[in-house]
Specification:
The protein contains two helices and no strands. With 43 residues, the chain is mainly alpha-helical. It has one domain.
Length: 43
């Protein structure tokens, strides 16, 4: 919750938020860009 507050603040302390697809479905944030990527199933 603390990191989410930093992300939402206007002071620019945390300009990037990285989360899983599960968290992304439940977050409603005002953002300019969304970058989606998937990790490979096998390395």
């Amino acid at each position: 919750v603390e990191n989410l507050k930093k992300f939402k603040s206007d002071d620019g302390d945390c300009p990037t938020l990285v989360c899983t697809d599960l968290a992304a479905r439940g977050l409603d944030l005002d953002v300019d860009h969304v970058i989606m990527f998937d990790f490979p199933l096998n390395s």
